[in-house]
Specification:
Strand order of the largest sheet: 1-2
Order of helices and strands: HHHHHHHHHHHHHHEEHHHHHHEEHHHHH
Number of helices: 25
Distance between the termini: 88 Å
Helix content: 40-55%
Structural class: mainly alpha
């Protein structure tokens, strides 16, 4: 066409020149209309592509083998070609673009079941009206599409409230403040406290799991008639100081960590030492051990530089904590099935570990990136590598100085035995017969023995034991000697610091669930907020920071970081009027 226009100019044909110019303009019009200005490209990259990647790539990209409806949205050609129903995007024609129709949930629904915000749909309409500029010339590979989809999803999930650093709660606002705030919006008032009998029964069952005795009933009712507030405080103090409180709280935690006295499966072998872990939990809750200390001990109690020692029983409590890993089903089978059985055991440990200490289901990422939480498949196998590395060992849990007296006596007896044996050996040889003694101390004999030992020592260095610290990593890992001190993440502080935010929120969540008469309802939005229960986030923040509110002097409050004593955290809920409300209350 350009050559024809040039010929018309050369020949002076004005009419033909006009027709040629008009034809050229018609040819170039579509291209000029779809030219990619920097502003158009920026609009696509900031407003359109992120939505496609986050909301659509999981079902409509090269990341999956068979895109739904034959529709792919990961390149310019694919999105304009469309799928089985026709073109998804027609530049300049929103009414003919099926993608916009689906976003509005008119004849199709994308994403299914949850419509995007109106502002996002308006962005797509604007984009299509202005030519649907799309700089994606080449479709991504399956790996690229999958990685892009996950990165966008991960960024969004990382913004959930439960994954954010803990905010400072209002220092004077109790749990009731949040309840009253909601009641006022509904024109309701907080119900009065239940009667003394109901409160006594409720406290006893919640804190100890046992009904009140006749003596407790009589004493509390008498004290309540004199001073109800003082009676309530004293009852809470007494129940928290009761050994039954630790047993009650330990029972909840044993459910979390899948405690069992046997390993299950066909042989149902006894889990040796499991009772030590049960008693360890009971002692920890009764001693009001801070939650972060309890977590450190169970994750890596054998690595703590300063273990927690029970001075009364002379026990190294921290060494009992890692028994947590040893629970769960232990199967058996042939050597061919061993690897599969071992992987299932590791999977069980990952599941229990993540639910107990993170309140999240990391085990769901075994075969793919997590469908709901901010956990990738790489995270799963990184944790699997950590749990596959340790080797089981038997360690004495007695404190180092427990057997000092016995050890000193044994050393004394050993010295006496050696002296007696020396006398016996001296009597074995006749001093008048030097031929018997000479071969035993011959220099040649000693030299031969030393040379043989030296050769063995030289060769043994070539076969020093090693252990792989990296598996399924992006870059090949190097073999490291077991226990290499330079390996990152070897200390319990590295582990607990990484999960501090989730751990403290989970602790507050559990206290709320355990201590309220009716647990918060199971949330349909649980995975949307990263929490198992639809528990008011601000109440969790308050329970984590809440002081004892002068209810007890049994244990001093330690408000540094997230070292919240378990009994102390309970008091924030027990002191509230909401907790003391009756089971039912009629509003006139």
């Amino acid at each position: 066409m350009l050559l024809a226009v040039c010929n018309l100019l050369r020949n002076g044909d004005r009419r033909g020149l006009a027709l040629g110019t008009a034809s050229l303009a018609m040819m170039l019009a579509p291209q000029l209309g779809h030219s990619q200005s920097p502003a158009d490209s920026e609009f696509f990259e900031t407003r359109i592509r992120p939505v496609l990647v986050r909301q659509c790539y999981a079902c409509h990209s090269s990341a999956i083998e068979s895109p739904k409806g034959g529709l792919r949205l990961d390149s310019r050609a694919a999105i304009r070609r469309g799928g089985e129903s026709g073109p998804a995007v027609v530049p300049g024609k929103p009414a003919e673009s099926l993608l916009l129709d689906a976003l509005r949930h008119e004849s199709f629904e994308m994403p299914p079941g949850k419509q995007l915000p109106a502002s996002t749909i308006a962005d797509f309409q604007y984009w299509i009206e202005h030519g649907a500029v799309d700089p994606r010339d080449q479709p991504p590979t399956a790996e690229q599409a999958s990685a892009a989809s996950w990165q966008a999803e991960f960024r969004e999930r990382s913004e959930w409230w439960s994954l954010q650093p803990r905010r400072q709660a209002h220092p004077t606002r109790a749990v009731d403040g949040f309840v009253v705030e909601r009641l006022q919006r509904e024109n309701l008032q907080l119900a009065p406290a239940a009667n003394a009998s109901v409160l006594l029964r409720r406290l006893c069952f919640v804190l100890t799991g046992l009904p009140p005795t006749e003596e407790q009933v009589a004493q509390f009712l008498e004290a309540d008639r004199r001073d109800s507030k003082q009676a309530y405080r004293q009852l809470v103090d007494a129940l928290l100081a009761s050994p039954a409180f630790g047993e009650r709280m330990a029972r909840h935690w044993m459910d979390v960590v899948r405690y069992t006295d046997t390993y299950g499966y066909e042989w149902d072998i006894s889990a040796k030492g499991s009772w030590e872990y049960r008693d360890y939990l009971t002692r920890a809750f009764n001693a009001d051990v801070p939650f972060d200390q309890l977590v450190r001990e169970q994750i890596a109690g054998d690595l703590l530089p300063q273990p927690r020692i029970d001075e009364q029983r002379k026990l190294n409590e921290s060494l009992i904590g890692p028994m947590f890993y040893h629970f769960g089903e232990h199967r058996h089978g042939s050597s061919l099935a061993f690897n599969g059985i071992h992987q299932e055991m590791i999977h069980n440990k990952i599941d229990a570990f993540s639910k107990a200490f993170l309140g999240m289901t990391v085990a769901c990422a075994r075969c793919h990136d997590h469908k709901l939480d901010a956990i990738s498949q790489a995270d799963y196998y990184a944790l699997a590598g950590v749990l596959m590395t340790p080797r089981w060992a038997t360690r004495p849990i007695d404190a180092e100085d427990k057997h000092d007296v016995v050890a000193r006596e044994l050393r004394r007896l050993r010295g006496e035995i050696r002296r007696e044996l020396g006398v016996v050996w001296q009597c074995q040889f006749d001093p008048a017969d030097p031929g018997t003694v000479t071969p035993l101390v011959s220099p040649a004999t000693l030299r031969a023995w030393a040379e043989r030992q030296a050769e063995q020592l030289k060769s043994s260095a070539e076969y020093s034991p090693g252990w792989l610290l990296a598996s399924l990593a992006a870059s090949p890992g190097k073999a490291k000697a077991a226990g290499a001190p330079e390996s990152p993440g070897d200390t319990p502080s590295d582990v607990t610091q990484a999960w501090q935010t989730l751990g403290e929120r989970l602790a507050a969540d559990l206290r709320g669930v355990f201590h309220f008469v009716k647990a918060p309802r199971r949330s349909d939005r649980a995975h949307d907020i990263g929490s198992y229960f639809d528990f008011e986030p601000r109440i969790c923040e308050r329970l984590m920071q809440d002081k004892k509110q002068c209810l007890t002097s049994a244990t001093l409050w330690r408000n540094n970081g997230w070292g919240v004593p378990c009994a102390s955290m309970s008091l924030g809920a027990l002191a509230s009027r909401s907790w003391r409300a009756p089971d039912s209350y009629k509003v006139c």
